[in-house]
# Entry
Amino acid sequence: MRKVVAGLCLMAGIAASSVAGATVLNGTIANFDADADGIADDLNIARITFNVSAGTQVFFDVLARESTGVDLNGDGLITGFDSYLMLFDARGNTLTIGDDWMAPTPDGSVDFFDSAIRWTFAEAGTYMITLGQGTYFQDEALQGYEANRPYDAFIGNQNFGAWRLTMTATGGTLSDVVQDGVPVSQVPEPGSLLLLGAGLAGVAAARRKRAARL
# Structure
């Protein structure tokens, strides 16, 4: 597990983007074939690495349940799932978890199932936060998916759930934010969310084709 986090820390170190204050990231929870068993039955967990200076407080705020029927994240759909956060240090140790949070919050969330974490980092360095559905374990967070876990659409009938994570830093600096290996400046905008679920399935299909040729 530590090897996984070490690789993520390296990617964070070379990311070109640097932000302070609020950083907003978007993504989806969807099933794909992560374990290459030929079945798209594994559920992805987003992994976001970032750097902070000593003393920085960051509020990690999830918007994932549009329970009022209002399109809060602007992707043109009403979706929703029960989100869950885990915060790690560079060695892969769990610092804290974030589950239900009393709504509303500044990102527009109106549902207490939208998770959040407020954390002050005593030491400067690289850290990672993961975002998934319901609850999951540390090893699943570090590998980036839950095996044989269906996506549960609590709201809407889509086979994926869109999420938005707002990271607000105070009292220090937040920089080098990387989402699943992609610098934050290159992360797709909300209008591209519909393509992400299909993209995950396409990657799995391509992997199976390459394996068949070997």
In short: Residues 193-213 form the longest helix (21 residues). The helical segments are 2-14, 138-143, 193-213. Residues 2 and 16 are 24 Å apart (CA to CA).
